[in-house]
Sequence to fold (169 residues):
Amino acid sequence: MRAMNELEDIAQRLGATLLARGEWLTAAESCTGGGLAQSVTAIAGSSGWFDRGFVTYSNAAKIDMLGVPETTLERHGAVSEQTARAMVQGALRHSRADWAVAITGIAGPAGGSAEKPVGTVCFAWAQKDRGCEAQTCHFSGDRAEVREQSVRHGLNGLLKRAMAASMLA
Fold:
């Protein structure tokens, strides 16, 4: 229960930052299955700053809902910074949001490889009409723990970037 409280605390701080700026958030999620959107929408008033979430678990969903190029998936795989970047940009294109996060990874217990073991998760964060940043993390633990760590990292990445943008404004 402590982890959920921590996630809600991060989401609440993120929401306050976005609300103060009149900005909106969208999320494109794969391995977290909507967990980040759930954490955000657990916050009362999130309808004032959270636009929508995309759960694109399959490659077909990534292509259909977010416009991820098939060639990106073929060349780099679903779990790659290139795919996360395409997901985050697609989420911004298909929403009214100012900010987006994308999460794609291997939560396990199966599906990993020597190159991309279970716990490999790729993230991308973007602000509309600004740059996009991507990062790959390697989390440990079981499926639930990898997913929870991924949601936390995605939210913290958004909060850090939104707060930095607030300081520059």
